[in-house]
Design a protein that fits this description.
By secondary structure, the protein is of the alpha+beta class. It folds into 2 domains: 174 residues, no CATH class; 197 residues, no CATH class. It is elongated.
Length: 388
């Protein structure tokens, strides 16, 4: 492994092969760490905007949530707070401009579920039992709308329930006029999706009684047993309900990110495999150079299988050396990027990366397996014909 070959070309090719393993390991680790950072960056809004658990109706749009149910929910160990939600799709109109969004009526406990101060972009949050809303930054831009504009109120329309054709469009919608008391900002999609209101206003707009909600959002204590709490929650409600955690509330997004991560891993692994197979060429050239030594080993009693193992272990050792160097360089670069952000996306935003043990394990196993396959293939060039 460490002795120089009599032919200088083989020494150069061996160094190139190890360098290819270094580059392959480094590239795969940096790409996986970068994707981990981008995934966390993309999902950071879920920690701010989505609750730990959310209760939905299995059928229909609403569930009954009486005082008795509230008391039972409060007695479940592990639940820190809960908030009643009334949500529906609405049509917004402001000074001739239109936009379709969702009104999300929340109670006073919503502040205990979601840190509203961290998403509030302008002015203040809702006051109970007031005809006011908090709009998103995206909605504000679409409607060219500011806050506290009492001279031009925001009009909210919601269809009245019923069947058959609409004979009088003017009576087909319920309409309320409100003022925007504040503005929130989370991300581009959510900023134009929701309009927050007081739950009493939302119930009035949708003509729901005081026991009806469309969902209940919960915050759990840090060490709470999620599985046990879900089972206890289902026993509280007489109707069929679904209880989803933060990941399940965004299952489409998580699936998309996981698929992207898989394709990135496969693509970079294929590139690394092409580079790593330089080791096979190096071993084959070494076998051809060492034919005399191989015959000597055979004369001393070594079998073809045992001689093949010598070259297989050499290739595996070359892979391991390159892998350890590449991983070490990758870890150092990722730590430096985390600390100093020397590769920026924008002048104020460094490219997000994340150092994770799982990525180290994935790179180690992937490169070692690829190097092992290349070494195994090359070692099979040692045959009875070569010895004879």
């Amino acid at each position: 492994m460490f002795s120089k070959s009599s032919k200088n070309a083989i020494n150069i090719i061996a160094r190139i092969a190890i360098s290819a393993v270094v580059v392959g390991s480094l590239a795969l680790f940096i790409v996986l760490s970068g994707f981990s950072g981008l995934r966390d960056f993309s999902l950071q809004f879920t920690n701010v905007f989505d609750s730990d658990l959310k209760i939905y109706p299995v059928q229909g749009k609403t569930i009954s949530f009486s005082k008795s149910s509230e008391n039972q929910l409060q007695n479940i160990e592990g639940i820190e707070a809960y908030s009643k939600i009334v949500e529906e799709r609405v049509f917004l109109q402001y000074r001739g401009k239109n936009h379709i969004a969702y009104i999300k009526g929340v109670d006073e406990n919503f502040k205990n579920i979601i840190p509203v101060d961290s998403i509030l972009f302008l002015n203040k949050w809702l006051k109970p039992r007031k005809n006011e809303v908090v709009i998103g930054l995206g909605t504000s831009q679409m409607l060219s709308m500011g806050v506290l504009d009492y001279s031009n109120l925001l009009e909210i329309y919601v269809p009245k329930p019923g069947t058959g054709q609409i004979s009088d469009p003017a009576n087909a919608f319920r309409k309320r006029k409100v003022v925007a008391s504040g503005m929130y900002s989370v991300n581009q999609d959510l900023d134009s999706k929701y309009v927050f209101s007081d739950i009493y206003f939302a119930r009035s707009l949708l003509n729901l009684d005081s026991t009806k909600v469309t969902s209940v959002e919960l915050k759990l204590f840090p060490n709470a047993n999620e599985k046990t709490i879900k089972q206890q929650i289902k026993a509280v409600f007489s109707e069929d309900i679904s209880v989803k955690n933060r990941i399940q509330q965004n299952d489409g997004l998580y699936k998309m990110l996981n698929i992207e991560n898989l394709f990135v891993y496969i693509f970079v692994s294929l590139i690394a495999a092409i580079a790593i197979f330089n080791i096979a060429g190096t071993i084959i050239m070494t076998i051809l150079e060492k034919r005399g030594n191989i015959k000597t080993f055979s004369s001393l009693g070594l079998t073809v299988s045992q001689i093949r193992k010598i070259f297989f272990y050499k290739g595996l050792l070359m892979t391991l050396i390159g892998l350890l160097i590449g991983l070490s360089l990758g870890i150092v670069l990722v730590i430096l990027q985390e600390q100093f952000g020397f590769v920026p996306i924008t002048p104020t935003l460094p490219y997000p990366v994340r150092l994770e043990l799982i990525n180290i394990v994935i790179v180690f196993v992937t490169i070692l397996v690829l190097g092992g396959i290349a070494s195994k293939i090359a070692a099979t060039r040692v045959s009875e014909k070569l010895i004879s």
